[in-house]
Amino acid sequence: MAPIVCGFIADRITFRISLVIAFVTYIASYSALTIVHRPEWVLVPLLGTAIAGGFMKPVITGTVVRTTSAEDRKAGFALFYRMVNLGSVLGKVSAFFVRRSFSLGAVIVNSIVASALALGITIGMFKEPEQKNEAPKESFVVAMRGYVTALRDPVFSIALLTLAGFFFMMEQFYFTFPKYLERHISKDAPYEIIGLMNPLLIALFQGRITEWSKRLLPTTSMLIAMLGGALSMATMGLLPTLAGALFASALFATAEMVFAPNYYSYISSFAPEGKAGLYMGLSFVPGGIGAWIGGQVSGRLVARYLPKEGPRAPLTMWLVYAACGVGCAVLLVAYARFAKQRQSSAALG
Asked: Which of 77, 142, 162, 252 has the fewest C-beta atoms lying within 10 Å of its C-beta?
């Protein structure tokens, strides 16, 4: 919800001011976490980080929309995704050394410093991206009606629901994978180092993968990525070793490199002029759906197939995830045909 509302606000108050608000809110929220010790109060600063992300995410993707043409937008989103994962690598590495050198609590200070640096870069270097055609500002009620109108478009709304399947699989690297490593591979497995596999590969090879896929239709690229994600899930169970986990992670990173630029580029094609932030806020809805459903499913499957004590069946668990990915790929094929028919009907008038 936060990216939707904050995306609307960002279109009105400028992207630059929105980024300033985002990083100031990050600094305040992380600082609050260092002094809050009662569990019931932790929710407040965590909510602050959600609001900060709600401003930052649609602004960054909206900036790509404003500064690229339809022809080079996919490359723009590829660069965006590459930088996101480079930041993930730097964050994970710095957090690892800070935790080892000081304490777990010092990792929050690391986040405060990173947010302060980002705030300084925003104030000193970020320039407001120009809009080709300045659209009249709308009220919040009118904007929300625009969201309703967008979601009433079956091509757009079905796309959001179908593509949530990829995020469902992606979230298993946060929900299921740590438990899998600890309970089935080794309780001493270097999770922080293994977690670098995905963002590091994306930071290094996103450009080459985008170059390879640029001639493919977005729906075709996302279909390939969906099947690649399902293959990664199956591989995780078929090769229940540390090497197998690393290989499966590399497979999913490759699928993610194919998926992400095409996904954001495809969703941005629905955004009218002047509503880049507002519409790109909707691009995070599938991630929220995938995370919510993924968390519910993960809890049940881990409890059944990967318990702390007793017999375990990790292969069955990962094959369930793979089957979900294949099922979503089938739905994506049906959606692509539906969207093509709708476009053909619209062209004929």
From this structure: 142
Token pair listed for 14: 């400028």
The domains located in the chain, with CATH, are 2-126+139-348 (1.20.1250.20)
Backbone angles phi and psi of 127, in degrees to 5: -110, 135
Please give the structure tokens belonging to residue 98: 């800070």
Please state, in angstroms and rounded to a whole number, the distance separating the CA atoms of residues 104 and 88: 18
Residue 286 exposure: Cα atoms within 13 Å on the Cβ side: 23
State both tokens at 319: 């094959």
pTM confidence score: 0.82
Q: How far, rounded to the nearest angstrom, does the alpha carbon of residue 68 sit from its chain's CA centroid?
A: 21
Can you tell me the distance from the alpha carbon of 164 to that of 277, in angstroms, rounded to the nearest whole number? Answer: 20
pLDDT in tens, the chain (349 residues): 677 777 778 878 888 999 999 999 999 999 998 888 787 788 899 899 989 988 888 888 888 888 888 778 888 888 888 888 898 888 888 888 888 888 878 888 889 999 999 999 999 998 888 766 555 666 667 767 767 777 777 888 888 899 999 999 999 998 999 999 989 888 877 777 788 888 999 989 998 898 888 888 889 999 999 999 999 999 999 999 999 999 999 999 999 999 998 998 888 887 776 666 666 777 888 988 999 999 999 999 999 999 988 899 999 999 999 999 999 999 999 998 888 887 666 554 5
> What span, in angstroms and rounded, lies between the C-alpha atoms of 64 and 294?
29
